[in-house]
Amino acid sequence: MRIHLSGTMVIMLAAAVGLQGCGGKSAQPSGEGTIAAGAVEKPVLKLGFIKLTDMAPLAIAKEKGFFQEEGLNVTLEPQANWKVLLDGVIGGQLDGAHMLAGQPIAATIGYGTKADLIAPLSLDLNGNAITLSNKVWSMIEPGLPKGTDGKVLHPISASALKPVAAQFNAEGKPFKMGMVFPVSTHNYELRYWLAAGGLNPGYYTPGDVGGTVKADVQLSVTPPPQMPATLEAGTIEGYCVGEPWNQAAVFKKIGVPVVTDDQIQRLNPEKVLGLRKDFADRYPNTTKALLRAIIRAQIWLDADNGKNRPEAVKILARPNYVGADENVIANSMTGTFTFAPGDTRPAPDFNIFFRNNAGYPFYSDAIWYLTQMRRWGQIPEAKADQWYFDTAKSVYRPDLYLAAAKSLVAEGKAPAEAAPATDGFKPEQSGFIDGVTYDGRKPNEYLARFAIGLKGAQTVTATGVK
Fold this sequence. Notes:
With 466 residues, the chain is an alpha+beta fold. The chain has 3 domains: 1-39, no CATH class; 44-126 and 269-418, Periplasmic binding protein-like II (D-Maltodextrin-Binding Protein, domain 2, 3-Layer(aba) Sandwich), CATH 3.40.190; 128-264, Periplasmic binding protein-like II (D-Maltodextrin-Binding Protein, domain 2), CATH 3.40.190.10. It has helices spanning 7-23, 56-63, 66-69, 82-91, 102-109, 134-140, 162-170, 185-196, 227-232, 245-252, 261-264, 277-282, 284-302, 309-316, 326-333, 363-375, 385-395, 398-410, 443-447, and strands at residues 44-49, 73-78, 96-100, 117-122, 128-133, 176-179, 203-205, 208-213, 218-221, 238-242, 255-260, 271-276, 336-340, 343-346, 460-461, 464-465. The protein has a 5-stranded mixed sheet, with helices on both faces. Strands 10-5-11 form a 3-stranded antiparallel sheet, sandwiched between helices. InterPro entries: NrtA/CpmA_ABC-bd_dom.
């Protein structure tokens, strides 16, 4: 049987074959086959994201043409939750993703799912908050210190929750709060805040993936867009999540944000671009092009004191991105944050995408996440300081970031500060809500400073800390 093809179909088939040769599974690394030196090896990419405002660098890179200028045809695909997103990257259905900073670290050490993932770029700093239900807020608000204007003074300590949690537990109702994933920044921020206020958020054991051993407050996983509905249903009494889902609670009048993550940890590292290690190894030019486009988007987002943020809000409000009301998104993306109706405060650092070296993947940031995994039992046994250093360097890849950033600087497309001169470790950091300072070069010494949390050779069993 003969098959007759029209001229148009022949052209389409030829284009498809050419595209597969550049970007399909049979593509060769740079320098092999027919790929020209410096050309992207895989021009068609699919990146995953969760509907949060801190996915903005990906949306801006696409909508402002930065991906296209780098020779990339990128599809951005929202994912149902962080587990689905992680599995998509590991399984190859996604080429990369807007990812929780803890996810590539946890995958590398084999907590949850074992996979070789890397983080060649940090997407942002800050961006989260902790919200309490109206019920709980009404229980703690009368006793909170207030300023001369009658408004509650911030930051609010979790110590205000101690009598509330005690009352719940005495009535046989565990005090429950939500976070988005066991290795999320949100989990560690919420735990940090609770512990700083004298509340134990519980420990993980190999047999307890819920992390509830000896918990004064029980934490559970809820996908970000579902947080407000879960709070309204009374399943949880509070949560830690990224925007716009704290502001959504304010607009729906179902909850009150009480602290932002920048008040818990100054310049808190948040999301990363997560890739498989073998992707970066096989497609080095594609990886560099991807990083260049995202860095340009980060610069655009922070340019001229945020002059582009209103346009970014309109883009993020589209249903194919965050899909929330523009006013809700603008509340945090344009330099303010609303804690309650009539209580909107300046928050110029709530979302940082380029300033303060936000894009550079510091080893010390990765080590901080590892210390929190150890503190709460996700790393069940003591590790030497060198283990923390080696693990951080296997996941966070400033070499890839700098290659992209330096090329942009050389072309006049990025300021010099896009490529900082650093050994990958930040100076000793202050600005934590409990007053404890952090030095990424001394992880075990850092862990020893906490009254609540594992330290030294301590381990956890079902009955508690040993």
